[in-house]
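Why run this: before we spend reagent on co-expression, it is cheaper to look at a predicted model of the complex and decide which construct boundaries make sense. The entries below are exactly what would go into the expression plan.
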Amino acid sequence: MNDTLEVALRLLAVFAVFLVFPLFIGQAEHKVMAHMQGRLGPMYAGGFHGWAQLVADGVKFAQKEDVVPANADRRVFQLAPAVALLPYLLVLVAIPIGPDNAVGEVVDAGIFFVLAVMGVGVLGSLMAGSASANKFSLLGGLRTAAQLLAYELPMLLTAASVAMAAGTVSLPGMLDAFEWWWVPWQIVGGVLFFVAGLAELQRPPFDAPVADSEIIFGAYTEYTGLRFALFMLAEYAGIVVLSGLTAVLFLGGWHGPFAGELGWLWTLLKTLALAFVVIWLRATYPRLREDQLQKLAWTVLIPLALAQIALTGVVKVAIN
Amino acid sequence: MALDDLAQKKSGWPGSGLAKGLAVTLRTMTRKTHTAQYPDALPELPPRSRGVIGLFEENCTVCMLCARECPDWCIYIDSHKETVLPATPGGRERSQNVLDRFAIDFALCMYCGICIEVCPFDALFWSPEFEYAETDIRDLTHERDKLREWMWTVPEPPALDPGAEEPKEVAAARKTADKLAAAQAAEAAAAAAPGPSDAPGEPGAPGAAGEGAPS
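The model came back. Tokens follow.
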């Protein structure tokens, strides 16, 4: 009985984080991006500096008509937003936030689980692209597929590098084995993981699959109302998950001064700092062209990821 | 060769351009924003802003120059003549224009300001007020009383540049005042010469207090 309660509490906490953090990061994106462009951003909703802007957006989305195109593959079309969103909730369960198994659910093969489930999220975009009966959606879906193929590989390779360094594939286990000098050791891998994750989330500057000025909004062109909002939420939940994972794998997660009591705070700080970088990159760089995207992945990221693995292996052997 | 130099100068270490981009956005974030929070905070308009045209109808002589010069004919003027009795007995009767209607259709006005420039009697002025949008286009024709009301919003003219030429009106007034003062001083001196000499200051001029007092 006590165990059931504990599991329920943990899942509830994860769910709360899943609902609140994406909104918080979305709001931060509004404000940070605005200030980086010399603007103020939302100022009215909620009274104080537009803090309730995303709540207002949500209300607006909920009021809109849920349109399914006549020629669309109805079932797949309606299912796609859920497929895009739910994997991030599942990943969140496995991300440790503090020492002593402060995690939604301890998964032994944590890193496998996390990367595999994150890959499922992209499936939502593919489903949306093929089911919409719209050429822009199809183009967006194809671009998503191409991007997934190109960027999943460096992500896996760099994650493998960390797993090699730690000698375990369990996320809490990796953090237990963490030493401070892993940060410079794995820094290249960390950057690659982060960049590849950005590309997988289709965040600028890797947003060619949604490129609103070229192909309307890619796979999401035909979506309206709540289903569209779910795709948006998936994007921001993706930022939370990517930032959290990068923090756990490459920045030491809860490690820091007073980790015993304040471990969760360190995880939170690192995650938010990385989320800030995600927004910062969006405000700074223009969108990469489709061929530049592929070139970056195959000629830069993958060779560098292989080099990181080699480095990890050499150092590991040298230590032992 | 020159192109090579340029390319070398531009390149720097790899990724320096990317870092520069990040620095620019980060620096902008720490600076003050440029957003004009208009309905909450009124804009600070420069002097001589072209908001609305005010009519100082006391100065208007119905010469019609403004209506004739207006490029899109948005000024409507009606008037009639009145006969004024002679100022002195036995004098001639004079006729005078009386303004009946003066209206500017701001739906047509293109804010060129030619009417204001052309008015020889300083009866038209720019006011910086700009919030007079209407839901009916006919309400954009401001009649005489409304145009007179705008006069209260006309700001003082901005001060002249340091070292600028004195305005003609002030120069003329000063000249007149100086002449008067000189005449009075001469008179006082002539009166004082036979008797005991008084203080030569304060002429105590009766009447004729000109607009441009000598400073």
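Confidence is low (pLDDT under 50) at residues 203-215 of chain B. The first strand of chain B starts at residue 52 and ends at 55. Bring this page to Monday's planning discussion.
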